[in-house]
Amino acid sequence: MSSHLDSEMPVRRGTVTTLRRVATLTAVERDQLFQLLGEHFQGVERRQFDLDLDEKPWVFVVSDRETGAPVGFSTLMRLDTTVDGEPVVAFFSGDTVIRPEYANDRQFIRAIGQLLFSTAAELPESRVYFLLLTCTYRSYRFLPGFFREYYPRREQPTPVAIQQLMNALTRLKFPNEYDATAGVVRPAHVTPVREDRVPQPGRHESDPDVEFFLAANPGYAQGHFLVCLTPLGDDNLNPLGLAFFGRQR
User: Of 40, 17, 20, 38, which Cα lies nearest the Cα of 29?
Assistant: First the structure.
């Protein structure tokens, strides 16, 4: 992954996404990220924010191109385990926020995805996955939008082997807060999305994937996270995903 670190990736006119090592953030930058998180989530505490941030080696920072002020960010860490003697790597995206005026700017997602797919291609000896914990249907909808295989999903039950892998990976990060039966992480200190930032189903209320998410994670508004897993590889992207991330089979 080192070959991709600290690289600047244009996102759209007016913004830029930079992948940074957390250790290089200044005190002012950390303050700005903490403020952004507090704009989106209730009950955010500085001590917990710093602990969570320092646990992650990398952070994507989305900044306004003119002012340089951050408008969003997403932290990233790597989880390693072994399943049946085979190495498994999962990339876990932690705190992720973006200001409402940029919420439809999917170039932020493209920048993250392009790096993860490039990194996965550099690990041919390992099975590589993306571990997503989400408390909003908006994030969950990226899975059916871009991927062929992902779990949990409405069309079929999660295979036993995949469920065991999800359990193993999630327990590496949340050993005491993961309810494997429900497939949900219920943090000891919840930080629910602020009421004015909670995505409302609205026009998506008849979307079967939204309905599935709401049923699978009934505590989403209280800050509970649905655990999701998808293989990272060009062969797992659907046609829209291949075009969006600029990949090819």
Answer: 20
Measured CA to CA, the distance from residue 196 to residue 114 in angstroms comes to 31
Euclidean distance between CA atoms 44 and 190, whole angstroms: 9
pLDDT of residue 202: 57
Which amino acid does the sequence have at 227? V
Q: What percent of the chain has pLDDT over 70?
A: 90
Q: Quick one: 127 exposed, middle or buried, by C-beta within 10 A (0-12, 13-18, 19+)?
A: middle
> What pLDDT was estimated at residue 7?
45
Residue type at 36 in one-letter notation: L
Which DSSP string corresponds to the chain? Answer: -GGGTT-EEEEETTEEEEEEEGGG--HHHHHHHHHHHHHHBTT--HHHHHHHHHH-SEEEEEEETTT--EEEEEEEEEEEEEETTEEEEEEEEEEEEE-GGGTT-THHHHHHHHHHHHHHHT-TTSEEEEEEEESSHHHHTHHHHHBSS-BS-SSSPPPHHHHHHHHHHHHHH-TTTEETTTTEE--SS--PBPGGGSPP-GGGTT-HHHHHHHHH-TTGGGT-EEEEEEE-SGGGB-HHHHHHHT---
